[in-house]
Amino acid sequence: MRKFRFKWLAAGLAIAAFTGSQAQAEPAALYHGGPIITMDGDSPETVEAVVVRDGLIAFAGPEAKARTLAGADAIDRDLHGATMLPGFIDAHSHFTAALQGANTLDLSDPPVKDIPGLLDALHAYVAARDIPEGGWVIATQYDQEELSERRQVTRAELDAALPGRKVVLLHISGHGLVANSTALAAAGIDETTAVPPGGMILKDEQGQLTGALFESASFLLFPVMPQPTEEEKLAALDAAQMRYAREGYTHAQDGATQASDLPFFLSEAAGEHMFIDLALLPFYTQLDDLLSRDDLQFGSYRGHVKLQGIKFILDGSPQARTAYFTRDYANGSPAGHHPWHGQPVVDEETFTRLARKVNDRGWQIFAHANGDAAIDMAIHAFDALGIVAGDDRRPIVIHSQFQRPEQLADYARIGVGPAYFTNHTYFWADVHRSNFGKEVVDFISPLRAAKAAGLHPSNHSDFPVTPLDTRLMMWTSMARVSKSGVVSGPDQRVSAYAALQALTTGPAWQIFEENRKGRIHAGLLADFVVLDRNPLETPTDAIRDIAVLETIKEGRTIWSRN
Ligand SMILES: [Zn+2]
Hints:
binds zinc ion; six-stranded mixed sheet; five-stranded mixed sheet; alpha/beta
């Protein structure tokens, strides 16, 4: 970050010294000397050179012409053989999560391996932070599948290990948590608490709370948990953006913005601190409040921040067995009950009613749906609203993971953009295979079939659910190999070019910015990523090892490895 600020400042000083005035335009920059993949069109094309002026791409084409256009005073940006691409566009992640690291314990770094190890990590955190009795201990990236016991830690175990503290372990899926007695009491949750619609409050055989809350039931705890202050968030904003920039992203998404965070993101102070673009998806639970405001401009930037659309959640996650399917999970419900095929978080009627308000207002709809039954709900609602592809409303179904093949035709008819999540083929395909048949898991995040159906698919990390690593995402969409080495749907593997489209042109279309970002073409933003190897000429197994050398936003270097 320091480096970025310094470079920006240094460039400004250089211009001032050269021209004797700060009002003069900056000289053009000439990029050349390595493959420049434009992502313009359906097959790979490279150009020799790019001219950048005032943050925009002025020219992309032959080097001789570029030199003439750039002028004698152009800044020379020799790639020295490195590969340049359009900056990556984050199709779905949770930027807010990158802001919250300061006051939480990350259980994945270093990873805890079993329940005693988990309790030790919590102890060490309490000691290091000197957290007093009554204080909050909030841990993130909790995943019982990564514990050797392969079960949830219990309220009783947390009570015994950390008496007096309020302990909350946030599940890696973002769809649940485990809390101890003191934390549950702070939120007024006990055995008699009514289960909110679409939620689960787990109890043991004696009817006692286990501490595990899923989906809407987990929301009961959030209001009493401490939130970072405005000052803490501002201080964390630079580091949060650098986490994206170092992966080559020039655009990030906050995939479920809480109403309480909106004033911060829309503030002038936050706007001044943003140097990558950020698209916000306000969460639907405060929809009426949002609709009543006439100061909210959706679809256009203020500085680097844009209100993109409204985020709905229709179901849970398949690895936590809370996604909503038309078929049963072999392993039953999270509590082990059979038969179980998940459940929706909102009923179809409610979703349709709320989605209609959003659509009538001209705002874009983003619906999280993992299981095929939740995807059916989205399709039914869009049909009820009369949305067809020709209207160009572009409703986005985030994850769209367990689609049935025939649902792709529905997407094409309605004009839905699927935001896929191929990292599941690596991280959780083995878990999915224990629940569902091969043909179901083989069609997870079907990038290739979606392209064949004429859709504009994107690929995402859902950070903090999986790492922001863009090359890992490329690799999972190309290899589809699980942790245990099983390939899910070899016929859905994509080429390196299609993998890159899902990180550039696909997400640009999904946010209505295809004429602004995602390609290297005259008139578009000069947002680039420079890689140490050309992904189009790298064997699939080595894709993960490609390094980001530099990230450039509107002509400015915002991150570089050296
Ligand atoms: Zn998400």
